[in-house]
Automatic annotation (TrEMBL):
SUPFAM superfamilies named in the record: Clavaminate synthase-like (SSF51197)
Biological classification of the source: Eukaryota, Metazoa, Ecdysozoa, Arthropoda, Crustacea
Cupin-like domain span: 13-202
Name by which UniProt lists this protein: KDM8
Species annotation: Lepeophtheirus salmonis
InterPro entries membership: Cupin_8, RmlC-like_jellyroll
A single cellular component GO annotation: nucleus
GO MF entries: histone H3K36me/H3K36me2 demethylase activity
Key words, A-Z: Oxidoreductase
Keyword match Oxidoreductase: yes
EC number: 1.14.11.27
């Protein structure tokens, strides 16, 4: 198990390079969460769910809608493979606001954070969900609890990633590029982009 001091002194982290941390506090209580257990605790809570996430306009960070529903209903659709679950996404759900029953939460990486942040947040998606390429305003630690997530990370040269105009929906800056099918004719500078690629598994 890596020590906090060892992680802090990691040369890749010092150089602001992405790293995968394994076996960091493996007994953290959050790793025991499952969707059914969250429903038991928080099923009646109202959450904000993105819709139309299957459309091309979502994949390029251009448009989506928001609906309000209970976490129980969202989880039921997800677990029963309801057709609507394939075009829905519970994203950026503030634990303090949407899941207060889970508090207090001591994150494995709290000791690494050198500044205040607005998290933690919870994301719950169906298998195969594609999230639009975007630039987050803060440094992040992403903890995988269930399933796996493919990640593509780029340096913060926004011109190469062709951001959507200011005023687009959402709190992040979204790229106009579908990473699964990039249009190099429309976005020629994207050929210069350097991508770091990895897959996160549970407990990482």
């Amino acid at each position: 198990m890596p020590s906090i001091a060892g992680i802090k002194s990691n040369t890749e982290i010092q150089r602001e390079k992405p790293v995968v941390i394994t076996e960091c506090q493996p007994h953290w209580h959050g790793f025991a969460w499952t969707i059914p257990s969250l429903v038991d605790k928080c099923g009646d809570n109202e959450v904000s769910i993105r819709g139309e996430t299957h459309k091309d306009s979502y994949r390029v960070g251009n448009a989506y809608n928001i609906r309000k529903d209970s976490f129980r209903n969202y989880a039921h659709e997800l677990l029963t493979s309801h057709p609507r679950s394939l075009k829905s996404y519970l994203a950026v759900a503030s634990v303090a606001q949407a899941f207060p029953q889970l508090l207090p939460i001591t994150l494995p990486i709290d000791a690494l954070l050198g500044k205040l942040h607005l998290g933690p947040y919870l994301w719950v998606a169906h298998k195969g969900h594609y999230e639009f390429c975007h630039f987050d305003p803060d440094d992040n630690f992403l903890i995988m609890i269930q399933g796996r997530k493919n990640l593509r990370l780029f340096k913060y040269d926004l011109d190469i990633l062709y951001p959507n105009p200011l005023g687009s929906e959402g709190k992040t800056i979204q790229s106009r590029i579908d990473l699964d099918n990039p249009d190099f004719k429309s976005f020629p500078k994207f050929r210069e982009a350097h991508c770091e690629y990895t897959t996160l598994h549970p407990d990482e």
